[in-house]
Structure formats: C-alpha cells, structure tokens
C-alpha cells in the first residue's frame, strides 16, 4: 500500500465486503449450531436405543457403538465441515474489520498531521 492509499478509500466497497463476510460468518455460525444440535440428538437417540435393548452394556461399550454408527459418523463429518467454514468466515470477517480499523487509524494520523502542519504554518 502506498503512503497515500488510505486517503483514497473505497468505502462502499469496503462495507460491501464487510457485509458479505458478516453474512457468511452468521450463516456458518447458524449452520454450526444446527449441526451440533443434530449430532447431539443422534447421540441421544442411539444411546437410548442401546439402553432399551435387553442386552447389558457398559457406558463405554455404548459410546463405542455410537462412535461407529454410520449416521452418527456422517453427522460428525457435517459438523466438522461447518466448524471449518465457520472458522474461515470468522477469520475473513475479523481480517476485514482489522483492515478497516487500520485505514481509519492512518486517516486519523494523517488528519492530525495536516492540522499540526497548518497550525505551524500559521505561526510562521
């Protein structure tokens, strides 16, 4: 970035990008919560199913059977995918916010410098 790029900020484009990243961030957060809920429900469904069978099983045996259930594994993979996209969108959103904040700081610094320069010129 050249020294004067922050003076020519394309605010509409920055805000459009920030909104896009915010929408993705919110979408994947919602998807993550839904997939976590689905996985917990599947876990509870399987647990109760094994408990209600006539066989005696330990807690560890039931947990092991749940972990290898095809539906549970598929839901777990969906959860991992949602977590990945959520973290990616969160990072993109935070990076864009940081970029905007840095641009604002540069602009504020430049305006302060210009004000001091004008004040100094008025004294000479």
Gist?
The protein is an all-alpha fold.
Question: Describe it for me?
Answer:
There is one protein chain. The chain is an all-alpha fold and 124 residues long. The chain has a domain at 32-101. It is 85% helix and 0% strand. The protein contains 3 helices and no strands. It has helices at residues 11-52, 59-68, 70-123. α1 packs antiparallel against α3 (70-123). It is rod-shaped, with a radius of gyration of 27 Å. The mean pLDDT is 89.
Identify low-pLDDT runs. Answer: none
Oligomer: single chain
What's the number of helices?
A: 3
Count all strands and give the number.
0
Compute the average pLDDT: 89
What general outline do the C-alpha atoms trace? rod-shaped
How would you sum up the major sheet? none
| Estimated share of beta-strand residues | under 5%
Helix and strand content put the structural class at mainly alpha
Distance between the termini: 34 Å
Classify the helix fraction into a percent range: over 70%
Radius of gyration: 27 Å
Order of helices and strands: HHH
Question: Keywords, please?
Answer:
single chain; 124 residues; mainly alpha; 3 helices
Task: Explain the layout of strands and helices.
Blueprint: H1 11-52, H2 59-68, H3 70-123
Helix pairs in contact: 1-3
